[in-house]
């Protein structure tokens, strides 16, 4: 880490306030983030003291010293960063040059926080495939250069919140991993069992970026007549849309649940959990989501150095692991789970490490592809009566998480939502959507009441819950239709008809509701209510911005974003009743998951037909 730690009281000496709003924003951000100190590669006159390449090179030297290794032993160098000192060449080449190293195989991974994990994945594959015996992975960040007050001069020191608040969130620094085919000759080494990295950039809009101006308008800094024009328009400012961040962690936890469901690892086997996040508030979000999924890792097993190091982006997990090892907590045989979510355009990554003693032959590289988690080597725990409902519920939720992850990704890639993500959505598109959606919502309470009439023993407790839900939603279509009229729609209510996908979904729900004890419909409700809670809130800001319609045209969307969390709590209680009352909890679980999958496919068909 460069230079001495900078306390919260000292920040203004390095990152000067821009205007009268700055202190208020800074105090709020620091209170929520929980960061007490950070490091800057700047002096108090905003002059660079260490380049990004120099920080990366120093991290490698320190790593080699601790491992008692030599630079001459390295065969490759992989790097990760959100931006080095130059646009090109690659950052790995810049670090190699700074080191004065011998010829190496290099790869430069550019991104945001997960770029360091991508570099680690690449380096691990080189070792596991037997191509090289030893190499280095480095990640480095130097964001403070973007936050100098002088960067905002052309804008008269005014900027939007998305670029303003980040000035106090990030820190400079670098970290490195030495990768080898066998453990060190002394002390503990870390065996990398697997690394899982997946991008969801085809699903969501930009969340964090440099290069576009305000509101992520798709005009690259290279498209301006001059760099001065680009700077004046704010194209060189680092921005993050904080409204999208909750969806990043939702995606990450669903991917976590999917890995557990597939038998890649078990939460109870994790001795230490190192989770990268930019704010202690977001750490609580991760914990809550784990708890709700029934896959919690106890907080006493968590480790974070955010408070003392700040958020160093791609280098964060490297720096965190180094500090954790220095804490002396790790013991031979213990397992460490790493979690690195990236907000740029949503990437999540996990890795499993195990502490091994020096010379342990079992610690040698296995030759398995580092990017592919092992396929079920762990047996599924049977659902037994002795385990109680917790096992059946947890199993159901894990499988539903996989269904949701696939559905959510596909929903974001439907033509309707792609038009929103690409900024091509107009008021006419909103009205068209409402014309398809109003008749769909109109049927929602009808099949719920039909299901209530079909429910008997041993699920009578469900009747009241589903009836309450139906009563709350039976007039939703009227609200939605009024929104449609306020948006400029002019078709009579009875003239609005379901599209082919909506007809298929409606027919499916009514047919299922007419069967005796149609409890499996809880799987369909999970998809429908989840759409309102997890997808609609992310769409609403984009719809407002692109259509320019009055707030009265979005009342239905706002209502569901605010109230569907309560609906999902009621849904969870209903699932517990269903599993508890079922003669065969596993068969009931299977039916709920199957219905969720089928309703998801039909809901997507409905969305695909909104043209």
What labels describe this entry?
611 residues; alpha/beta; four-stranded mixed beta sheet; 19 helices; 46% helix
State the end-to-end distance: 53 Å
Number of helices: 19
Strand content: 5-15%
Strand order of the largest sheet: 7-13-12-10-11
Mean pLDDT: 89
Q: Calculate Rg over CA atoms.
A: 26 Å
- In total, the number of strands is 13
Q: Looking at the structure, what is the overall shape?
A: globular
Contiguous runs where pLDDT drops below 50 for at least 5 residues: 366-372, 374-389
Sheet with the most strands? 5 strands, mixed
In terms of structural class, how would the helical and strand content be classed? Answer: alpha/beta
Oligomerization state: single chain
In percent, how helical is the residue content? 40-55%
Description:
The chain has 611 residues and is α/β, with parallel strands linked by helices. It is built from 19 helices and 13 strands. It has helices at 22-33, 52-67, 91-99, 115-128, 161-164, 227-232, 245-261, 280-292, 306-309, 316-326, 389-412, 415-421, 427-454, 460-473, 476-486, 500-513, 522-547, 555-581, 585-608, and strands spanning 6-7, 37-38, 76-81, 105-110, 134-141, 173-180, 188-199, 208-209, 239-240, 272-275, 302-303, 335-342, 347-357. The protein has a five-stranded mixed beta sheet. The protein has a four-stranded mixed beta sheet with strand order 4-3-5-6, sandwiched between helices. The protein has a two-stranded antiparallel ribbon with strand order 1-2. β12 (335-342) and β13 form a beta hairpin. α7 packs across α11 (389-412), α13 packs parallel to α16 and α14 runs antiparallel to α18 (555-581). It is globular, with a radius of gyration of 26 Å. The N and C termini lie far apart (53 Å). Mean pLDDT is 89; it is low at 366-372 and 374-389.
